[in-house]
Every structure is written in structure tokens, then in C-alpha cells.
Design goal:
Blueprint lengths: L8 E3 L6 E9 L6 E12 L5 E3 L9 H4 E3 L3 E4 L4 E9 L7 E11 L3 E4 L5 E4 L2 E10 L7 E9 L5 E8 L8 E8 L5 E5 L10 E7 L7 E12 L2 E12 L1 H37 L1
Parallel strand pairs: 1-11
Antiparallel strand pairs: 2-7, 3-4, 3-6, 3-8, 5-7, 8-11, 9-10, 12-13, 13-16, 14-15, 14-17, 17-18
């Protein structure tokens, strides 16, 4: 068992090499199941989560290199079946990581009705990940494309990362916030990210603290991936003009009341002094 998990397939085949293997498919229900099985390439969501492509999408990597012993199976209740497959790496495949999977999908969709009365056809599918690393010189390269702050009562940050190397990267890190004049400190951890080679992820982070009137300071991004580190610092500031206008209005009213009070008070003293002189 390694970092990829015992239920996943992991290979290190050079270009032009093949590897036979098999995947075990189990019907855990009391009903006979008609199962479709097909290989796909992996992709990453906008936020960097690993996902398997749909059956109809093009297959250029693992999805094209896996040949299954069958593309459909009929499984009796509680039956399990070993399905053989062969992974063949094209001779010209460059050094680095490739990720895909084998999808097990029920051929007959199930019906369900939402609370709003909408009828849905639900297709259930499971995926087994397949990792292949073509041997050679690994290059771990990560580029910080954007690190931006957005004005809000809760400070919001957008971070764009690009994997420019040939290996899968799982960066970890934090965004540390330091208030103006170095007062106060807060750290936000980055969510789990899987960056395939030559892919980009966009991360959104939101501070849990609200600021009614204004906020300013510096945000420092600290990233680690493998033995490498990257940092970047930006300044941020935010002014709630509506709140400031209300405060100015309240202060103006208070000043007006004070001036009015002083005027009345001076007038009363002047009247009392005149009566005293008489």
C-alpha cells in the first residue's frame, strides 16, 4: 500500500511497454445488475479536485491506453467477477504522470422524484483510479498565476495555480493575514488540491471575520510542494463607504446637537447675567 491507496492501480511503465491486470467487480445487491465498464482519462475541477471524465468525452491518455476484456457484464445477486485488462503505453509518451480510471456503471438508470415533484433518471457509477508514471527525470514546477484580494466585509482571496512540470503536484499551504501596522494575525489553510501536469486550479478563500467599516493589511501566501516552497505577498484594503457615510452623518448630528446645546447654554447664562446686573 502506498500514498495512492491499496484500491487504486499504480504503474511505472516506459513507453512501448504493456502490463496485464484485472479489476474485481462486485454486485452487493440482491438484484441482477447489467454493468457497463469503460476506461476514461482523469481531469481536475476548477478548484483542483480530481475527477473522472464522462464516457462521451475524448480519450487521449489512460482512457485510450486501457483495453478491457469486456465492456459490459451481467452480475447475479452478490456475485463478484474479475475483469482482465491491459495497459499499453505508446512509445512516444513523454516522461511524467498520467491519471485516468476504469468506470463501472449501471446500464439501467434508476428513477427518483425530488421534493419539488421533478422526476429524475439517476445513473450510478464508480471509478477506480489508474496512475501511470513514465520513468525519466521528474520536474516539479508550480507557478502562481494570480493572487488577488476582493473587497468585502469578509476578505476574499482568489488564487490561481498552474502545474508547469511533468509530475502530479499536491500543494499545501496557508494564506496569512496581518492587519495594518502589523496588528492582528490570521491564517487560512488551502483546501486539498490535486494538480495534474499542465493543469490549472483556481482556489477561493474567505476570511471568517467580518469588518463593518474598514479593513487593511497584507496577505502572504505560503506554498509547499515536494521539497520546494513558494511565497507571494499582496496588500489589501477595504472601505465600506455606506457605513462611513452613516458614521459621518451621526457625528454631524451629534456635533449639531452639541453646538445647539452650547448656544442655548450660553444664551441662558447671558440672560441670567443680565438679570443679575439689574
Amino acid at each position: 500500500m502506498d500514498e495512492y491507496g491499496s484500491a487504486w492501480f499504480r504503474y511505472s511503465l516506459a513507453g512501448g511497454k504493456s502490463q496485464p491486470d484485472s479489476v474485481t467487480i462486485v454486485n452487493n445487491s440482491a438484484a441482477t445488475k447489467r454493468i457497463a465498464v469503460y476506461p476514461v482519462d482523469a481531469t481536475a475541477t476548477r478548484s483542483g479536485a480530481l475527477a473522472m471524465r464522462n464516457q462521451s468525452e475524448p480519450r487521449l491518455g489512460i482512457g485510450a491506453w486501457i483495453k478491457l476484456g469486456a465492456d459490459s457484464l451481467t452480475l447475479l445477486p452478490f456475485e463478484h467477477r474479475n475483469l482482465p485488462f491491459t495497459l499499453t503505453i505508446p512509445p512516444s509518451t513523454p516522461v511524467g504522470d498520467q491519471v485516468g480510471g476504469i468506470i463501472i456503471q449501471e446500464e439501467s438508470p434508476s428513477s427518483t422524484v425530488t421534493k419539488q415533484g421533478v422526476h429524475l433518471q439517476v445513473v450510478s457509477r464508480l471509478g477506480v483510479r489508474v496512475y501511470e508514471t513514465v520513468p525519466g527525470t521528474p520536474h516539479l514546477r508550480l507557478s502562481i498565476k494570480n493572487f488577488l484580494a476582493r473587497s468585502s466585509s469578509r476578505m476574499r482571496f482568489t488564487l490561481t495555480l498552474e502545474n508547469t512540470g511533468n509530475m502530479t503536484i499536491r500543494p499545501q499551504g496557508t494564506v496569512g493575514l496581518t492587519g495594518i501596522f502589523g496588528i492582528g494575525h490570521e491564517e487560512m489553510a488551502l483546501p486539498p488540491i490535486t494538480l495534474l501536469p499542465q493543469r490549472t486550479a483556481v482556489i477561493e478563500l474567505t476570511s471568517p471575520h467580518e469588518h463593518l467599516v474598514a479593513n487593511a493589511g497584507r496577505a502572504k501566501l505560503n506554498l509547499t510542494y515536494g521539497s520546494a516552497r513558494s511565497t507571494q505577498t499582496i496588500a489589501y484594503r477595504w472601505l465600506n463607504l455606506a457605513a462611513i457615510a452613516i458614521i459621518i452623518m451621526v457625528l454631524s448630528i451629534c456635533v449639531g446637537v452639541i453646538i445647539k446645546f452650547q448656544t442655548v447654554f450660553i444664551s441662558l447664562r447671558y440672560s441670567n447675567n443680565k438679570r443679575g446686573d439689574n
